[in-house]
What does this fold into?
Amino acid sequence: MSLRTDVEDLWHRYQDGLTAAEAGSDVLSVLTEFLAALEDGSVRAAEKRDGEWEANQWVKHGILLNFGLRSISGYEYGGVTYNDVLPLLETDDLGERGSRNTPDGTTVRRGAYLGSDVIMMSPSFVNIGARVGDGTLVDSCDTVGSCAQIGENVKLGANTLIGGVLEPVESAPVVVEDGVSLGAGCRVTSGFVVGEKSVVGENTLLTPRIPVYDLVEETVHYGHLPPERRAFTRYVESSVGDHDLFDGGAYKPAVVATDVERETLEATEREDALRE
It folds into this structure.
């Protein structure tokens, strides 16, 4: 049987009432094999098909099973005992792949994938099911949520939040495609897709509820930023702008997207010295 078949069968048993207390060695063996497949990149929570990002529902089921069919245990990390259903990822092989994580707070949960030439600065956190591509920088105070898909050569500025979307299982998670640069303090949530080689200004909120005014195509997008855009936050008049409670009117956030200029791209390139 394939791993996918094993996970799908186990999901049906779980839906029929199987509990962590009843899970035997056969169940734990499937769960552990599944985590290893996430970690080596052979399976992933979402993939791009015919130009659209789609969730792999069985993979999300496997992640949920690792929460539902494992008991809470005490684990040691940095001289502190913490309680969780999963241990943290073993990172002994990062150096062999040219990746590095600075001390005192780079945390990667089991079931996450880190590519080669990745840099994780302290403190930062990568959750189960997330995928961080080759050459990507995860800066200080960054969080990469469960199932989030981060491409290659991405720069996540300091204090950036990448949401996940584990449930509902049919929904694609947050995606940041190859070559994107997110400024410090950005928030990307609720399955938003950031198109490749885009540059996003600091403190920008990207979520499907906020419109993206694309000045290149002269259209409005929801839920995605097209490739090769420079995006930043602006405020537009709200529908309650004339309400008596608001002196001077009310405004709501929006995102404006323009062409990426060469100077902007050059300003976001990382120093080669960081990779030597």
In short: The chain has a mean pLDDT of 92. The chain has four helices and 26 strands. Helices lie at 3-15, 25-39, 57-68, 262-268. The first strand starts at residue 46 and ends at 49.
